[in-house]
Design goal:
By secondary structure, this protein is of the alpha+beta class. It is built from 21 helices and 16 strands. It folds into 3 domains: 5-173, Oxo-4-hydroxy-4-carboxy-5-ureidoimidazoline decarboxylase (UraD-like, Orthogonal Bundle); 180-397 and 514-599, Aminopeptidase (3-Layer(aba) Sandwich); 399-511, 2-Layer Sandwich (Alpha-Beta Plaits). The strands form 3 sheets. Strands 1, 2, 3, 4, 5, 6, 14, 15 and 16 form a 9-stranded mixed β-sheet that branches. Strands 7, 9, 10, 12 and 13 form a 5-stranded antiparallel β-sheet that branches. Helix 13 (280-295) crosses helix 21. The longest helix is centred in the first third of the chain and has 24 residues, at 150-173. InterPro entries: Amidase_Cbmase, Bact_exopeptidase_dim_dom, OHCU_decarboxylase, OHCU_decarboxylase-1, OHCU_decarboxylase_sf, Peptidase_M20.
Length: 600
């Protein structure tokens, strides 16, 4: 018999501990203390109450919880004294069938880890999908985490314990995050498409209008059709656009003329060697919502338009937000003559893809026909992960500006050019990097990054005569962003003058800060609260397609927790099926609540 919330809510604290026995390894006190948070409104509420009980525990109790867990493939496994839950989990990950070499490797890692941290290595070996991690992934994670600082790793151990408990609770309640599994699987399947040079390394890179990019568009479009969208197209910039029409729609007759549209979506391009969830999560959460509406034969009193934006990252060309920008009429025809690293112009890439330049202006939407724009996105940061919260309400998106530049000096012999005679381009950029770091830190909440740095045709024994670089600067509001940029650019000029070099600098992107529309932020809050998840409001330091749509219509975003310290723009970027399930459910509630508003 599956456990129920009704049983837990009616039980004594001791009975609660008995019903939840095995959720946390040999630690009944957690369930007893969590019982004070009753009545549990949902399974998500119960999970959070358990997390809070651990969070409020003493250091000794937390360490005791960590030490109550067995080593991976350790003595308890060999002696068959693991709990039933641990036996199942380690077996599912293949740890009960290690080769002698794998077993020896894990034993050495266990010894090294215990020597450094004083507690066993804890990993939710059933993984973010619940189906089990491979032994290679487990060993790689073990080796990576061995290098963490002690305090950070203790937190990571607790976070993995909570994930283990979450999966065990799902089992106890007979709950399968079916929608979250589907969203997770779509992202995994889409990640097989990657640009040349990266596929061979097992890395994900999908840049604008490459063969892999076009394959992604076709696959997303196919899934949209299968889900039941009324129309699906790949538009003139490569956006994948699916529409689910409003109540009263009759197939073959066109859209219902009087109904407005709710717009959502995110991007499907990636950074180089990036993650599988940045952008794409927002497409597939919405796709799952439409599929469920279609299965229920339900329509809403408004149309629902889901867009997989073709480009947001600015990786192949200097322009960025090409997909969402085109929808608000912001596409600069001069971008068409930009060249990628191989000398291919955007115009040529578009011709290969069969896209017509003259059709781009037709993509501009009439904001009066739209209710607003909402976007679901993986957080891309550590905040939700460290707070053990699955969802976050975005209050605003930071404004940002990007530049690409060159410092031009004089290449000369590294052995014969005295230090006071050098015109070293790379040294000038190095000085700029340090200044940008220090200047941004003065604001407290500004950031500045030089993410690209290149000495073309550099040689070990040549003073660099040319150094190419990028600059990315962001701040919570436009005046703060502009002051930061002005100071950094002024310092670049001063550095170059002092060093006898010159520079070029080209602005490649500028985006205004985008505060969430209060009424739309409140709609996300109402949906998240109904799930029994605590509300946490937070700004977004990353740029998103929502900040472009913000220029013409109200917008608001929902963040989803990332695991692995919330890292993003990295192959370790990930989220769990349970968190994705909650994101879909929150979006469904937003759609339903909005439908009720329109009905009244």
């Amino acid at each position: 018999m599956a456990l129920s919330l009704e049983q837990l809510n009616a039980a004594t604290p001791e009975q609660v501990a008995a019903l939840l026995d095995g959720t946390y390894e040999h630690s009944p006190w957690i369930a007893q203390r969590a019982a004070a948070a009753r009545p549990f409104r949902s399974l998500a509420h119960l999970k959070h109450a358990l997390v809070q009980a651990v969070s409020k525990a003493t250091d000794e109790e937390q360490l005791g919880l960590i030490r109550a867990h067995p080593e991976l493939a350790g003595k308890a496994m060999v002696s068959k004294t693991l709990t039933a839950e641990s036996t199942h989990e380690q077996g599912k990950a293949g740890l009960t069938a290690c080769t002698p070499e794998e077993f020896a490797k894990i034993q050495q890692l266990n010894a090294d880890y215990n020597a450094k941290f004083g507690f066993p290595f804890i990993l939710a070996v059933r993984g973010p999908r619940g189906t089990g991690l491979g032994k290679r992934e487990i060993i790689d994670t073990f080796e990576r985490r061995l290098h963490h600082p002690a305090d950070f790793e203790r937190g990571e151990a607790l976070r993995n314990i909570h994930r283990i408990a979450e999966i065990r609770l799902d089992d106890k309640f007979g709950f399968t995050p079916t929608l979250g599994n589907d969203v997770w699987d779509w992202q995994e399947q889409l990640s097989v498409h990657t640009d040349p040079g990266y596929a061979e390394k097992g890395q994900l890179t999908v840049t604008y209008l490459t063969e892999a990019h076009r394959a992604c568009a076709q696959q997303i479009a196919g899934w949209m059709r299968e889900a039941g969208f009324d129309s699906v197209e790949i538009d003139a910039v490569g956006n994948v656009v699916g529409r689910y029409e409003a109540e009263g729609f009759v197939p073959g007759t066109g859209a219902t003329p009087d109904a407005k549209t709710l717009l959502t979506g995110s991007h499907y391009d990636t950074v180089r060697n990036g993650g599988k969830y940045d952008g794409r999560l927002g497409i597939f959460v919405a796709l799952a919502c439409v599929r469920e509406l279609k299965r229920q034969n339900r329509r809403l009193p408004y149309a629902f338009e889901v867009v997989g934006f073709a480009e947001e990252e600015g990786q192949r060309y200097k322009a960025t937000f090409l997909g969402s920008g085109a929808l608000i009429g912001h596409f600069d025809a001069r971008w068409l003559d930009q060249k990628d690293a191989d000398g291919i112009t955007m115009r040529e890439a578009r011709a290969i893809a069969g896209l017509k330049d003259e059709d781009i202006p037709k993509l501009k939407r009439d904001p009066s026909r739209y209710l607003g724009f909402v976007e679901v996105h993986i957080e891309q940061g550590p905040v939700l992960n460290e707070l053990d919260l699955p969802l976050g309400i975005v209050t605003s998106i930071n404004g940002g500006v990007r530049y690409v530049g060159e410092v031009i000096g004089m290449a000369s012999h590294a052995g014969t050019t005295p230090m006071n005679r050098r015109r070293d381009a790379a040294a000038a950029v190095a000085e700029l990097i340090l200044f940008a770091e220090q200047r941004a830190a003065k604001d407290g909440d500004s950031v500045a990054t030089v993410g690209m740095l290149e000495v073309p045709s550099g040689s070990i024994n040549v003073v660099p005569g040319l150094c190419k670089f990028s600059l990315d600067m962001r701040a919570p509001n436009n005046p703060q962003r502009d002051a930061l940029a002005a100071d950094v650019i002024a310092e670049l000029g001063a550095i170059c003058e002092r060093r006898g070099v010159r520079f070029t600098l080209e602005e490649s992107m500028k985006a205004s800060a985008a505060p969430s529309a209060p009424e739309w932020q409140q709609r996300w809050e109402k949906a998240v609260d109904a799930l029994g998840v605590p509300l946490y409001r937070m700004p977004s330091g990353a740029g998103h397609d929502a900040m472009k749509l913000h220029e013409v219509m109200p917008q608001a975003m929902l963040f989803v927790r990332g695991i692995n310290s919330g890292i993003s723009h990295n192959p370790l970027e990930s989220s769990t099926n349970d968190d994705m399930q909650l994101a879909v459910e929150a979006f469904q509630l937003l759609l339903d609540n909005l439908a009720q508003e329109k009905a009244h």
